[in-house]
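Please produce the structure of this protein holding iron/sulfur cluster.
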Amino acid sequence: MIRNSVLTEKVLPILQRHEGPMTRELLLSPGEHGLGMTHKSLAADEVTTAVCGYCATGCGLRLHLQQGLAVGLSPESEYPVNLGMACPKGWEALRVLDSPNRATTPMRREGNQLIAIDWDEALQMFCHEFKKIGKEHGPQSVAFLSTGQIACEEMAFLGCLAKFGMGMLHGDGNTRQCMATAVTAYKESFGFDAPPYTYADFEASDCLVFVGANPCIGHPIMWERVLRNPNDPEIVVLDPRVTETAMAATEHLQLRPKSDLILLYGLTREVIAIGGVDKDFVERSTCGFEELSQCVDAYTPAVTAQASGIDEEVIRRTARKIADASAASFWWTMGVNQSYEGVRTAQAIINLALITGNIGRPGTGANSITGQCNAMGSRLWSNTTNLFGHHDFASAEDRQRLAEILGIQSERIPDQNSLSYDQIMDGIDSGEIRGLWVIATNPAHSWIDQDDARRRLAKLDFLVVQDMYANTETAAECDLLLPAAGWGEKSGTFINSERRYGLHKQVRRAPGKALSDFRIFRAVADYWGCGEMFSDWTTPEAVFQIMQRVSCGRPNDISGINGYEQIDQCGGIQWPWSTQDAASGLPEQERRLFAGGKFFTHDGKARLITAEPGTMPEPPSDQYPFILLTGRGTVSQWHTQTRTSQSPILRKLYPETIYAEIHPHDAQELSIATGDSVRVRSRRGSIVVQASVTSSVGQGQVFIPMHYGATNRLTLKHFDPYSRQPSYKDSAVSLERVQ
Ligand code: SF4
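Below is the modeled complex.
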């Protein structure tokens, strides 16, 4: 139990008061522009705990308060996720709020400049422009792009406001770039997007298999949990690079880029061949074993070795480690998800866990590690490509159920799925989509094939950016900027990688006229003329209660959670937690899914799904002989660096200049030394980087971190056909030393 008397007795009533109904008068009164909080009632030495707002690890941070405002933080030792640890981003979470680059007032474009305006003018402009476009070109002509960085309650508000209130048909999130593949894979295999694990599994495995994942850098606190494992576990890493995690592995399979599906099939075949199948579990709890066996039969150790570059003996040894483990767990991240065949690769991992019976027990699981702090909130609550609460837009029954719970007409709910992110970008290019509302994401930096993405964004008639910072690449292109409060300046819930709802809290004033995203959505609803539809959506906690009703009876049922206060006191609560569960007592801190071997499919059996491996769309050629790999650079960088670049300490912990890792053999051939300027060219564009000569990349490969503004000028626009997730890690490039 975490000591959080501050939240329950003092902060919460204040938050509720200040997140109260948004009237036009309140919106425009000066005191409200900074959320108008006074915290005089809080003593100087009090602390409260909130979950971190960067990554999906979801660490608890202890916030030290003076007069109710946070003046410092430290990792929360009693939070079940991080157990007293935090990475540099978490330690610096407050400092980035004080940046001079914060957006502090609404701004509209006038020629080449953005000029400050007040909220009234901004909201009138917002409604006028979007309504005009909709009237002239139809409801499909405006769309939104959301994020995995805002609270569940804010995502819920945005998605329901845009689609049910404003009549938009299309909206997607930046989670398309990170988690769409895992979502699709889980839905097809388990019947629901349901990561099965809990972080205690890092400590309970005796064999951990990481595929395309570098938790040392990407999820350092999860890696700390691995280091606490008392079983002296096997740590197997499948990665084309010698990452920090690979260096710590007991077995690193340094496979050729994009040979992961073949290698996983080769391992599966070998596991079957050596009798590593849990026949009872396969019979009782899965479908498709015969088809799986037939599919993988072609991938003998010799064939697999030829395709992947991994020695036959290593393949056999790794299969043996998996088969002999009493509790094997399988973990993957972007090396799998960001692939043109990511869904089938993720399912090859799921298949391995299923056929060996490694699911539903401590230390097991086919476990996708999530990226952003609330990527899972986006998956369940954003009302983008899934109907609110992970329902189906195409199902009349789902639409009717939702309409009844929300008290709206079912006709207001679109009966078709939204376009995905790439399809929205295509719609912009074709002129079908003319207005775009971008919330807490930065497509002009992060979207694949950046020059093309920017060309498309420039075609829009009206681009609105809602963000904490005024200096993002996308904000530079916008027609209207809406200044948003950040983490620490508002409250709500995030869902971490292990399905844990955690609370973040308002412990700072937002600067200038910035408002919480929640308040902006309320204001938009009022100005748009659909405020009545959201009359119950008064506070984040009121929306959480709506989400609870929507979740009732579903796999993600949270109806048994006794409000924010219980989430706070329990150190977060994993879904599901239904009213039936709650009848048996308080939630345990670590719970995993599928303990009974029952899945969310109609017959309760998991599906073993396979496909023939495809070929790389842009293989290396004479002109472009290298494969470009992209990914996380350091633990101190986050995505497009809109936040991490605002911390002088974090900036000192990563290279300021964009760099490329080049193998020593290739460097020698091209007369390149560390520190040289090198031109990297693809069929899309050309950039200059600093060389870092290192054998952490294989020969014929180049690695450039994704955080730098220029990286995506090189990447090839292609997608997994099932998840529509971009494939960022397989573009052909050339290298040339700049004299
Ligand atoms: Fe925050 Fe993630 Fe770092 Fe934990 S690991 S402190 S959640 S950024």
